[in-house]
Write a structure and sequence with these properties.
This protein has about 120 residues and is an alpha+beta fold. The protein has a single domain (about 5-115), classed as 2,3-Dihydroxybiphenyl 1,2-Dioxygenase, domain 1 (Roll), CATH 3.10.180.10. The protein has helices at about 15-25, 75-80; strands spanning about 5-15, 30, 40-45, 50-55, 65-70, 85-95, 100-105, 110-115.
Length: about 120
């Protein structure tokens, strides 16, 4: 995906099993936890493009969060701070080839960033 595309949406949930049943029944989403991420079931919409995860609800993560793919999380977080935003979570690894971070915009919205390649095919 190109820099700036929304690549993923996390939905905070209290009960993973209940949420999987709810969203798969409601929207027809395919939901499964990829190997190595058993506590993080991923959903994919019928269009095979839209997707995200069902993640445990926690303090500060109480509303769905969109993730934007960027060429460089480091460069983007520097621009966030220079533009009046706040880094909530610094760049952190997902896999050996992918990273994420979270920032807050000047209006208080939490947005995730994604950089890299996450390929679970063949695992």
């Amino acid at each position: 995906m190109p820099h700036g595309d929304i690549t993923h949406i996390d939905i905070p949930v209290a009960d993973l099993t209940r949420a999987q049943e709810f969203y798969s029944g409601l929207f027809g989403w395919q939901i499964a936890a990829p190997p190595g991420f058993e506590d993080y079931p991923m959903w994919q919409a019928p269009n095979k493009i839209s997707g995200g995860g069902l993640a445990p609800r926690s303090e500060g993560f109480e509303q769905p969060r969109s993730y934007v793919e960027v060429d460089s999380i480091d460069d983007t977080l520097a621009k966030v701070e220079a533009s009046g935003g706040t880094v909530l979570m610094a760049k952190s690894p997902i896999t050996d080839t992918s990273w994420w971070a979270i920032f807050e915009d000047p209006d208080g919205n939490h947005i995730g960033l994604y950089e890299g390649i996450t390929d679970t095919a063949g695992q």
